[in-house]
Amino acid sequence: GAVVSQHPSWVICKSGTSVKIECRSLDFQATTMFWYRQFPKQSLMLMATSNEGSKATYEQGVEKDKFLINHASLTLSTLTVTSAHPEDSSFYICSASSSTDTQYFGPGTRLTVL
Amino acid sequence: DQQVKQNSPSLSVQEGRISILNCDYTNSMFDYFLWYKKYPAEGPTFLISISSIKDKNEDGRFTVFLNKSAKHLSLHIVPSQPGDSAVYFCAASAGTASKLTFGTGTRLQVTL
């Protein structure tokens, strides 16, 4: 149990385009989903927290207009990187949590912006 | 300000021996701690957790110890196996289903 999927696993896009990443909890209902990014050899940095049906809460320094988060249902959250630039290239990971404390992570999405 | 620290970036242990990974935190509001294992280009996999009301939690080969007064936790893996080779992150949160603050990770290499 507690499986979280992400799609796509790897995406390459041109600078200035937008990219959407999906995060799904496959076998449980996620009341809360989290989005992280990880730069090479660094820790996971929380970008935002989203609760189903409400606006996401962004961490300090994360541009909410650039990283659009939608948590449309208890099993799906999406992160859209708008007008992507090369510095947005990173490994993006989502996690999902139900009423318990444990967060379960997706496999991650590697974004490369050319 | 790194609220969760893993001061050892890497650790090498022989197969069959005990691996001890350490983690320190500074925020006294943290009351829930987790360990995750991560392979390159994959998401973290949950290993074990501990609440601040406990000082030890065991699950198979994995045991987590929490010393609240020292703000220190450790993960013991015994016996270590080659398949345990990965990066291990400790994480902490304040409250139920709250956001996690991760340490910088420790790369464990289990040698034959």
Strand content of chain B: over 45%
Largest β sheet strand count, sense and barrel closure of chain A = 7 strands, mixed
Radius of gyration of chain B from CA coordinates: 13 Å
Q: Biggest interface: chains and residue counts? A: A-B, 28 and 22 residues
Uncertain spans of chain B, ≥5 residues at pLDDT below 50?
A: none
- Please, what is the average pLDDT of chain B? 93
Provide structural commentary:
The complex is a heterodimer of chains A (114) and B (112). Chain A has 114 residues and is mainly β. Chain A is 0% helix and 53% strand. Chain A contains no helices and 11 strands. Chain A has strands at 4-7, 10-13, 19-25, 32-38, 44-51, 57-58, 67-73, 76-81, 90-97, 104-105, 109-113. Chain A is globular and about 40 Å long. Chain B contains no helices and 11 strands. Chain B is mainly β. In chain B, the strands form 2 sheets. In chain B, strands 2, 4, 5, 9, 10 and 11 form a 6-stranded mixed β-sheet that branches. Chain B has a 5-stranded antiparallel β-sheet with strand order 1-3-8-7-6, with no helix packed on it. Helix content of chain B is 0%, strand content 54%. Chain B has strands at 4-5, 10-14, 19-25, 32-38, 45-51, 56-59, 62-67, 72-77, 86-93, 101-102, 106-111. The A-B interface holds A 2, 4, 6, 31-32, 34, 42-46, 49, 91, 93, 95, 97-108, 110 and B 32, 34, 36, 41-46, 49, 51, 89, 93, 96-97, 99-105.
